[in-house]
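TL;DR need structure tokens for one chain.
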Amino acid sequence: MDVSRPFAALAPGVDSDVLVALAGSTAQRSGREIARLSGRSPTGVQHALDRLVEEGLVHRSQAGRAYLYSLNHEHLLAPAVEVMADARWELMRRLRDLFAGWKSPILHASLFGSVARGEGNAASDIDLLVVRPRGIDVEDEQWRSQLEELADQVLRWTGNQAGIAELSEDDVSAPAGRSPIFEEIADEAIDLAGLPLRRLMKKL
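>> reply
TL;DR here they are.
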């Protein structure tokens, strides 16, 4: 799945980019603004808007010489558009639920890399940082089983491999844990479970 545009797995093309740019808001937008938000050409966006207005998925109103557009939230297909637009947030919700159900406690988990930045493509890994607390051995059977389940679930949910960076609590407090690369991860990480990464680093 294209992690920056997950909705493209169902509806590739300009139309889906336009719909997602309009989703989640009742605000009216100009064709030029929609083109900027979707990263598509104004001409392609205008053709897509004309088609979507005909289908009833998009409202069009005139404002002076310009036209403004908004998603028709009452359309039968509007919920499907909202689901496509929220796919990235749905992934994070599922990850949080999965971590919350772990029997072996987790000190910290976060999402980083291309998914956290809203970039990447269909070949990108879903990068996850997982910090194991003191008292749980690296070869602990239950802990390893949880990590395996995490990797399996990510693959089933997205079609992408999970890139799991596993660290121990001691690793985070060691000089290596304070390397520039680790700082870069901390700057872009989206916290999912346990202590927030910056608070964890400060505490240790």
